[in-house]
Amino acid sequence: WPSIYVGIDVIVLNQETPHLDKVSAPSLLDLLVSLGTHDAQFHVSDLSSIFSYQPGTMIYLAGKLLHH
Fold it and tell me: How many whole angstroms separate alpha carbon 68 and alpha carbon 15?
């Protein structure tokens, strides 16, 4: 179907080291959506911030510029 988004990734029960996105453009924001049933946190190390990432949460992030 037509989409304004470049790609879609599904990440399940994932815990990664802080990274920068390789594919996205610096001028674009990534949309992250938390679905399911869990108790999670989203870390943005460049901002020294931790955000609640409960089901239903949506985060727009400059993933090419901010370690997350």
Answer: 11
